[in-house]
């Protein structure tokens, strides 16, 4: 289970984080978002020391979805030092997602 962010908790948990953060923007009606949820939960557990993983409901908390111009769901943004450094749009298998994350985090 991933920790759910709100517009009120986003700044502290993501923008002020001391390690990289992956945020999934999702919505209840989004089928691919539900398919991605267990994959992200596994990654959150496996990478707990090096990457924080959260989700935020873009329908209920639209401020940051609007600020970062999230146009499709699911969209995952990787943040480093309070700034978005990479966007991943759409669901993907765990191996592909990990490969993409590793490439971003190594850079």
UniProtKB/TrEMBL annotation:
In this chain the Thioredoxin domain maps to 1-106
- Pfam families referenced in this protein's UniProt entry, alphabetically: Thioredoxin
Q: Which UniProt keywords apply?
A: Disulfide bond, Electron transport, Redox-active center, Transport
Stated family:
Belongs to the thioredoxin family.
By its UniProt entry, which PANTHER family does this protein fall under?
GEO12009P1
- Please give the name of this protein: Thioredoxin
Specify the species.
Answer: Pseudonocardia eucalypti
